[in-house]
Design brief:
Helix content is 59%, strand content 0%. The chain is an all-alpha fold. Among the domains are: 113 residues, Serine Threonine Protein Phosphatase 5, Tetratricopeptide repeat (Alpha Horseshoe), CATH 1.25.40; 91 residues, Alpha Horseshoe (Serine Threonine Protein Phosphatase 5, Tetratricopeptide repeat). Bound molecules: 2-acetamido-2-deoxy-beta-D-glucopyranose (NAG). The site of 2-acetamido-2-deoxy-beta-D-glucopyranose has 7 residues, from helix 15 and helix 17. 2-acetamido-2-deoxy-beta-D-glucopyranose binds next to helix 15 and helix 17. Pfam families: Ank_2 (PF12796), Ank_4 (PF13637).
Amino acid sequence: MQLIWGYGHAPTGIYLFELLIPVFFSLTRLVYLTPLFWAMIGGRMDTMSYLLDHGANPHKVDDRGFNPLHRAARRGDPEMVELLLAKGVSVDPVSASGTPLHIAAYNGHDEAMKILLKHNADCNKIVPGAETLLLAAIAGSSVKCVKLLVEAGADVNDGLITPLVAAATNTACLKYLLEAGANPNVPDNFGRMPIEIAALDGSREDVEILFPVTYCIPTVHDWSIDGIIHHAKSASMKQGDHSNVRRMAELKSLAVNSLKRNDYFSAATLYSVAMKHDRHDATLLSNRSLCFLRMGDGHKALQDALACSEMRPGWPKGWYRLGAALMLLKV
Ligand SMILES: *[C@@H]1O[C@H](CO)[C@@H](O)[C@H](O)[C@H]1NC(C)=O
């Protein structure tokens, strides 16, 4: 396919301009940041403590709606989390990315999660635009985080996407969730069972683990490990279009820059252009779904997330996006 516009012909001025936009926006953001945020960015516990003792407001949110506890959870710093909680910050404030527990789980920060849970963070909390905490931990690929949540009482069969659908290709999470009572016979949004997802995108071991606990699927004629793998692979029509690699990389990097400055409209537009070049890249769909989600368009977010999970069922982050979109529409 002919490119619409290519870097080879773009004047350098435009290129420079594109580079300067993020710099400009980063500078304007600095105005919002309090000394407390600066201390956190620098990892200075002593300064944080001093500021908090002298009247710094630990509840103040930044321009993106994140308060210091969200930020500490994203850093995964347990001491910082502990300090903020000791100063009276509530444990479950909701941001665009969910509660601090969501953020810690999604980033695989088990130590920070431990502190939050010790302070009674709600491990079954439902918030618009974020999925269950268990799904966040699976998306973060951390079996440690998954365990912490289950031990704290998270429901292993809850959610608009079940944990086993999202964990079908993560061997450690899969084993643990089955032991904890997760149901392997609930299909995904396209009618595929976790074992089919594992056969399509996971390892043979994942299929072997699921085989003894999955009910026989009538459309699979040869009900054996090899039979299921063969069936799943022949049913999917996977093919990649790897042309335009360079153009795609440029579009992605522009889109990510737009995402970074919360310009979801531009990012979504860039992803749409990128999709014309590569119709088989599920990450484009997942990120455009996030853009629509942040713009409050649940239906479009859902459409992209559905397409993403259909294309790449073994990718937990895709399932997380789908759950988040459904949750936005529901709540
Ligand atoms: C999607 O967004 C994430 C940040 O949220 C970024 O790290 C990643 O590179 C993006 N992927 C694509 C294909 O743009």
